[in-house]
């Protein structure tokens, strides 16, 4: 009998450990911008002023992604008659970073080109600078730069923290190049006025590109590509439509703590949404479907569209539209993937394009 009791107790402990007894860390939303510039490249202010802008405007993390460098070593800037030595990230970060409140990520925008088209990618929390690799075609160039960033990140805690930037800038990337590049993230929204998020009469918009890329990845059995929103800010003095200002697009990450490792883990799991103003109080996305709760602002109306790709179809479609602050989509089993976007009737202040409403994009989930 003793054996049996021991066995029962063992099973009880095992089941307990696997299910309810493991401590669940509470999660918080952290607001961050993962693409911006300073005097270290073509931004028009000091990196400390960029950090100050974001820490003063309710952000918890920031990647200043100057072109093809990290903010380290000697760098000067000629301003009027003066030649000014710029401060390194290691020199100014302590003035802004506070545990749980604000975090800076040493980051770079790897800026390359192929076939006379721009190919830009961000690498986050880098220890060493990554040199652009080049490539015979745009598709090869993107993929080889992804590999180079991955190589630089491989010894750290965030080996796949790479985004493909503004795919329609200079009509640089096709959906096919985006699909095949191997990166986990791309910019579905970039706030820079030249990036053509919405496409034109002969080029698809970034959302459609997202769905096309994910259809390809599902067919190949690869992980889905996830969408972030960023500012790509360059101008911090004059504000208006047509200027590359901060405050246009950001990423809300639901993570256990404000550390690079926790943010990265949450993003890899798709536990985040991209926003230009719409705030979510909660979301769930799993094999059963998607549930969204929107933080309602007075007199603002919200429309949630669940966009998916059904098996056997040749294009994505809006599978369901919900008006109001709560939206639920239950999977039917016919979907390859479904994502959600929320459109509000509140006009975005200082938008990417005149007349834009505030939006949010929730990550696709495959079935
Ligand atoms: Zn760029
Ligand atoms: Zn940029």
Brief overview:
21% of the residues lie in helices and 32% in strands.
What does this structure look like?
The chain contains seven helices and 19 strands. The strands form four sheets. It has a nine-stranded mixed beta sheet with strand order 5-2-1-11-12-19-18-15-16, with helices on both faces. A five-stranded mixed beta sheet has the order 6-7-8-9-10, with helices on one face. Strands 13-14-17 form a three-stranded antiparallel beta sheet, with no helix packed on it. With 367 residues, the chain is of the alpha+beta class. The chain is globular, with a radius of gyration of 22 Å. β15 and β16 form a beta hairpin. The longest helix is centred in the first third of the chain and has 17 residues, at 2-18. Helix content is 21%, strand content 32%. It has two domains: 21-275, TIM Barrel (Alpha-Beta Barrel); 279-367, Immunoglobulin-like, CATH 2.60.40. It binds zinc ion (ZN) (2 copies).
């Amino acid at each position: 009998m003793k054996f049996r009791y021991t066995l029962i107790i063992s099973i009880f402990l095992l089941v307990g450990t696997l299910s309810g007894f493991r401590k669940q860390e509470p999660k918080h939303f952290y607001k961050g911008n993962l693409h911006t510039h300073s005097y270290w490249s073509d931004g028009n202010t000091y990196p400390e002023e960029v950090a100050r802008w974001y820490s003063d405007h309710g952000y918890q993390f920031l990647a200043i992604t100057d072109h093809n460098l990290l903010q380290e070593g000697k760098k000067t800037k000629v301003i009027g008659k003066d030649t000014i030595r710029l401060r390194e990230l290691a020199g100014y970060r302590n003035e802004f970073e506070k545990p749980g409140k604000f975090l800076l990520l040493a980051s770079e925008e790897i800026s390359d080109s192929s076939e006379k088209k721009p190919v830009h990618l961000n690498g986050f929390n880098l220890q060493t600078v990554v040199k652009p690799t080049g490539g015979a075609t745009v598709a090869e160039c993107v993929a080889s730069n992804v590999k180079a960033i991955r190589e630089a990140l491989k010894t750290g805690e965030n080996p796949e923290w790479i985004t493909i930037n503004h795919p329609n800038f200079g009509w640089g990337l096709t959906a096919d190049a985006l699909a095949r590049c191997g990166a986990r993230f791309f910019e579905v929204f970039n706030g820079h006025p030249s990036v053509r998020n919405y496409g034109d009469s002969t080029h698809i918009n970034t959302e459609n590109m997202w769905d096309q890329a994910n259809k390809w990845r599902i067919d190949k059995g690869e992980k889905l590509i996830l969408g972030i929103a960023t500012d790509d800010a360059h101008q911090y003095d004059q504000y208006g439509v047509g200027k590359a200002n901060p405050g246009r697009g950001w990423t809300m990450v639901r993570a256990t703590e404000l550390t690079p490792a926790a943010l990265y883990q949450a993003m890899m799991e798709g536990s985040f949404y991209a926003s230009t103003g719409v705030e979510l109080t909660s979301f769930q996305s799993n094999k059963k479907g998607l549930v969204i709760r929107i933080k309602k602002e007075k007199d603002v109306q919200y429309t949630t569209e669940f966009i998916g790709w059904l098996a056997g179809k040749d294009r994505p479609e809006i599978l369901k539209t919900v008006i109001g602050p709560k939206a639920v989509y239950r999977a039917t089993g016919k979907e390859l993937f479904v994502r959600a976007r929320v459109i509000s009737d509140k006009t975005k202040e200082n938008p990417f394009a005149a007349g834009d409403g505030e939006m949010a994009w929730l990550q696709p989930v495959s079935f």
